[in-house]
Design brief:
Elements (H helix, E strand, L loop, with lengths): L5 H46 L13
Length: 64
């Protein structure tokens, strides 16, 4: 096993925490935002499809 000096280890851990934590947090936030947008779009599409059915918005469709 390669011996790593304590100073190098501290520098590596500090850089990893300063760089990786924000990168991972931004990636998770982006994934969450994409998921929320997808759910909102799916709900909106379902509502639009339900409202376009005859009889839902404008009464029964008597002129086929």
């Amino acid at each position: 096993m390669i011996a790593v000096p304590p100073v190098a280890r501290v520098v590596a851990v500090t850089l990893a925490r300063r760089v990786l934590v924000p990168v991972v947090a931004l990636a998770l936030a982006r994934m969450l935002l994409v998921a929320v947008v997808a759910v909102v779009a799916a709900v909106a599409a379902a509502v639009v499809l339900l409202l376009r059915r005859p009889g839902v918005l404008h009464g029964p469709n008597i002129y086929p």
